[in-house]
Amino acid sequence: MKKILAVTACPTGIAHTYMAAEALQEAAKQKNVDIKVETRGAVGVENELTPEEIHEAHAIILAVDVDVNEERFKGKNVIKVGVAEAIKDANGLIEQAISMKAKTVDYREQVEAIKAERSAERTGVYKHLMNGVSNMLPLVVAGGLIIAISFIFGIKAFDPNDPSYNPIAKALMDIGGGSAFALMVPVLAGYIAFSIAGKPGLAPGLVGGMLASKIGAGFLGGIIAGFLAGYVAKWLRDYIKLPRNFAGLVPILIIPFFSTLIVGLLMIFVIGTPVKSIMDALTGWLTSLSSANAVILGLILGAMMAFDMGGPVNKTAYTFAVGLLGSNVFAPMAAVMAAGMTPPLGLWLATLIAPKKFTNEEREAGKAASILGISFITEGAIPFAAADPLRVIPAIVAGSAVTGALSMYFGATLRAPHGGIFVLFIPNAVGNLLMYTVSIIVGTIVTALLVSVLKTRKNEQ
Description:
Layout: E1 3-9, H1 16-30, E2 34-41, E3 44-46, H2 51-56, E4 59-64, E5 77-81, H3 83-88, H4 90-99, H5 107-121, H6 124-150, H7 167-197, H8 199-215, H9 218-239, H10 249-287, H11 291-307, H12 312-325, H13 331-353, H14 360-374, H15 382-387, H16 389-409, E6 413-414, E7 430-431, H17 433-454
Parallel strand pairs: 1-2, 1-4, 4-5
Antiparallel strand pairs: 2-3, 6-7
Domain PTS EIIB type-2: 2-99
Subcellular location: Cell inner membrane
Membrane topology: Multi-pass membrane protein
């Protein structure tokens, strides 16, 4: 029997979310179709779909008017409509889902599916942290690039008191630094809390993150504020029970008020100051690193980026570098970005210099891996690593470690935490552009040579 999954969500999350879910379940029951419906209402996610269920599903119906993390459905048949259509024509949606043909998956879709599966498999603290980081990234990318563009007019051109002052540079700095970067930590904290408690966690998380920024506790304070807000809101949600007629007040009034008050007071009087001291010490250490220590840090960050190719170790290094952008420390970001590109690039190069050690399918996959590599999609190396982990993983770790170390040694910097090779063409986005590029090329060659040496001919295996 074909299994259908569905997600329902409306902006208020009180009535239509559940009406659409009931309509789909009733229509599926009448047609003897197996269905599971995830609801995303005001009280958070209920009946959540698991990675195994998504993998086995024939099609997914998204009856939603808000964002519901569609990345996890990559490679599957998806029907997307508003909740109103699911309420009006649930029978038609079920019939449409059943009649869809099974999708075939190419190499890039396979990589995207692996990424989505990994994302869905995240649990606990790691899942909540990654939810905050992923929602913060667009602000960091946009803000970093706009600030970099402002430097075209001069490093101090945004300052009205400097002789090089230019009003366009000031406008760009206000957009990138004064607005986008100012929202980084609040959004990080807000979406960590959202991941833990759903909508009720968003308000205390955003406020806690804003307080962390004002106090100077940086991204570390934002992370603590996010987890604090999430678990306070979740506790209130789970333990405050009112009569049915007043239940709607819990998610829209009682939880936001008390959780925001509790988190705000704790951030101001208990948590903020000591975390600020830690951030000041970390920033001071990173800005005064000797060449040897910088190389060691780059070596470690680079190796972490390739070790599990988008997994928890990779994301730990990435999050560390992204968080430092808010403290104007840009060298670790350059090392991490460069090191994340070399695994798929090195494997692509290996398929060119040692083609007899790869199957026809792998040589074709190498072409796609080159595109994924220059786009900073480290997961492009996963199909190769999965097929031959003992040879491929040490080779890509070594190449990325060399790239990270060289980038730190040359003092390369990067203001945007994504974009792959494309950020190289944006003026001032990359510091010491020439040697940054050399670092990527050297790491790619190291990976390719090691893979070529370690792998055996296919007819010898």
